[in-house]
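seq:
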Amino acid sequence: MRYDVRGIASAAAWLPVLRRFLSLATTGRVPMSLRPPDRRARRLTLLLRAGDALRAGATQREIAERLLSKDAAEPRWRTEAPDLRGRAQRLAIGARHLAAGGWRRLLR
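struct:
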């Protein structure tokens, strides 16, 4: 293995990678504490749950209430929490997209 360091800034960016490699080389595994977090995990979890809810016949309001906020249970949730309505709509659209084959993009 060869590692070229060209200044402190370039070394700092590669330190986490080097730590993971050293752990793998010495222990045969990479501990969870050294793995980078998947920034998409929460969103993908919500999309999968929304997709399951849609297939079970849930409305966007029910999805918003159960997955996003109890505020969606309020009678005037659409007008009093338009951001919540928009988030529920985006979840429904994203879930339908994943079900229609968009999941393949995740594998790239």
